[in-house]
Amino acid sequence: MTVLRGALLAVVVACGPNKPPPERPTLVDDTASSNSVVLKLTEFRDSMCSCHDPACASATGDKIAAWGNAEGHDPKDLKSFDLNDADHAKASDVMQQLTGCAQAANGGGTSPPP
Fold first, then answer.
1. 50 in a domain, yes or no?
2. How is 53-101 classified by DSSP, letter by letter?
3. Rounded Cα distance, 73 and 82, in Å
4. CA 37 to CA 72: how far, in whole Å?
5. What is the pLDDT of residues 43-95, one digit of tens each?
6. Which of 22, 51, 64, 87 would bridge 56 by S-S if both were Cys, CB 3.0 to 4.6 A apart?
7. Cα-flanking dihedrals φ and ψ of residue 26, to 5°?
8. What is the pTM of this model?
9. Cα 107 to Cα 101: distance, rounded to the nearest angstrom
10. 48, 103 Cβ separation under 8 angstroms
11. How many domains does the chain have?
């Protein structure tokens, strides 16, 4: 019995203390990240285009600014998002539509279709 305990103790000591495995690096898929920016801007565009008054447009603008600040980017400057070429073009179109909707909600111009 003491031999068995000794062998078990040797195995436990040999295994060492329980350490958590090292953290895996987070891989960033540029396409997925770029696509998520376009999707988020599209959501904001849809929200802005549903606005019919300056208060709604201002509230939506505040949400866009807060999102950009949280992401560490300037939503008015698409270059700050490091988008791939295809998504940069999509985001540019979405931002142009969003701007048109904001102008319409603030009493100027007409909103382009989303």
1. yes
2. SHHHHHHHHHHHHHHHHHHTS-TT-GGGG---HHHHHHHHHHHHHHHHH
3. 10
4. 12
5. 999 999 999 999 999 999 999 999 888 877 777 777 777 788 888 889 899 99
6. 51
7. -80, 125
8. 0.65
9. 10
10. no
11. 1
